[in-house]
Amino acid sequence: MWRARRWPRPRWFSSDTAAVGADSGNPARRRVAALWGNGDHGRLGLGALESRWSPTACPFFLTRPADPPTSLACGGAHTLFLTEGGRVFATGLNDFGQLGIGSSMPHTLDPVEVSGFHEKVVQISAGNHHSCAVTADGELFVWGKNSSGQLGLGKSAGKVVSTPRKVDYLADVRVKMTALGSEHSIVVTEDGEALSWGAAGAGRLGHGHKSSFLGFAMTSNEYTPRLIKNLDGIKIKRIAAGMLHSACIDEKGTWKIK
After folding, report:
1. 55 Cβ contact partners less than 8 Å away, ≥ 6 residues apart
2. 69, 148, 188, 233: least surrounded by Cβ within 10 Å?
3. 34-250 carries CATH number 3.40.50.450
4. Where are the alpha helices (DSSP H) in 26-145?
5. How many C-beta atoms lie closer than 10 Å to residue 183's C-beta?
């Protein structure tokens, strides 16, 4: 008789795990990742395709307590994990290279490490079919679907980039934060400036629009990062991206939605 596999009960912190250092008097706290929802394509990283109705601990990280996950990002059908040591892992659908592990595997059931970063990664984001990572020195790496220029690599870049590539157009700034929408991307620099690129439909990039002869709004996709000029002089602290819209908070705590 078939029985559903029982995974460990999720515990975000465990105080009963022995400390690594022999001379440490305090017990170590162990951090794990828990996931739930639709399990198609292995997006939950639980080693199976089944969906989960409640939070389930990821077995992959339970076996690697020395470098626990500190943050994660959920895309359309893939998930990214960032560990304490600055390493990136990905699981789920890989039809557009959004996992960053090349194009040979259509999907993965367990997290696989994403390589190609020359520095420790400090932040990750996941869009519908694209992904990005910010390194400790403020450089941005991108990969995945690029049909609308959402990777910011220029018009000559391919429609799919299956391994991390640095965005050279941001070489003069230090990226602090990122947010990915369905087909667009936004970053905030260390100086509080916001730049966006990718699909421009519905005004999601915040660059305004032109009117056609018949009065219809006209927008053009951006293939490289472009400063959002109507936020000039405003220091941005937080950004967010939805499927067709974007938002930010300035240093005074004011919302601005595009």
Report:
1. 10, 34, 35, 36
2. 233
3. no
4. 59-62
5. 23
CA distance 236 to 239: 8
Q: The whole model's pTM is what?
A: 0.86
Task: For residues 187 and 165, give the distance between their C-alpha atoms in angstroms, rounded to a whole number.
Answer: 16
Q: 18 exposed, middle or buried (CB, 10 Å; 0-12, 13-18, 19+)?
A: exposed
Residue with tokens 């017990």: 27
CB contact at 8 A, 180 and 142: no
Whose CA is closest to 149, among 176, 120, 169?
169
- Let me know: does 60 contact 68? Beta carbons within 8 Å: no
| Structure confidence by residue, pLDDT tens digits, 73-96 | 999 999 999 999 999 999 999 999
- Cβ–Cβ < 8 Å for 107, 93: yes
